[in-house]
Write the structure tokens for this entry.
Amino acid sequence: MRVSKANSEVLMKKKGQSEIAGFAIILVIVAVIMLIFLSFSLNKSNEEFTQSYEVDGFIQASLEYTTVCAQNYEPNYLSIRKVLVKCVENDPCYSEAGIGPNPCKILNETLTDLVKSSWNVGEDWPTKGYVLNITNKGEELFSLEEGNITKNSKGSSQEFEGGLTVQFIVYN
Amino acid sequence: MRNVNSGKKGQVKIQQMAFMIVTLTIFFILVGLFALSYSYSGLKSSKAALDEKNAMLLVSKLANSPEFSCEGSFGNEKVSCVDFDKVMSLKSSSSKYETFWDFKDIEIRKIYPSTNDCDNEKNIKCVCTEQNYPNCQILKVLSGNSTGNDVSTFVSLCRKESFHGTFYDKCELAKLIVRF
């Protein structure tokens, strides 16, 4: 059995074509794997934030701020931490005149003023934006958002007994 | 004829192998660079976090020192709580503490509630004195050089406040700023 010259050339070409096709498939597979890895790492950086001691200190100090919401008598004024619990329990603040102010309203006003006074936001400031979220067992209790959300973020999250979570993220 | 054919076939094989080696080398270099940049970015953020932690620890140490901290005066012991009354009395004898702390400047600045007039540091009415205490914004514990690196942390600034003759604990939001 002798293979003719024309036949051997066709066989060689076919072999070469299949090798190139195999190589192309390998390249495509590698490219797809790299793309998946890249998209995974990019998504991860968007979702997570760098733990910040400054933001953590802000949350700690803010929670101790004395509000105008009193318990049982005046001047037994409560801290934001205690007003949060009152808000969850829907227990009104004390008032000599009867039913006192709504703790959730006081919480909303006080926290908004506190955050706005502490973090200057804008193009001319190092902080470009922030998001403050307070949830109770996953249900939103208070939310405040200002400025732009960027990829560079730092934040802190604190959890309390009963499922209360305070999360504050600052975008630079 | 046969020798020429097999020689050409060999050349093609060598070309293929060279091409594969070059491609694989480029591929591994790319993967290496990618992995390196990924790990380096993590390193940078952890360095920034460590620097921030060190600075914060320095100020937190001061805030929680017996001269500044609330200790048990305002209910449970609180972290990063500064006793405004105690620091105000400390201010009067701050000259004794000049060499005690390794800082040029220690300042407590009330953040909330605040008045817009006090954005300007030169406003003399904003600086705490025995006459305007506690209705002031800036308490200068140590006033040294105005140049240097600033490190600050948020603290709750607590004091005893009077309401119709009854005293209660009032905590406000402030920043403890040190310069070294």
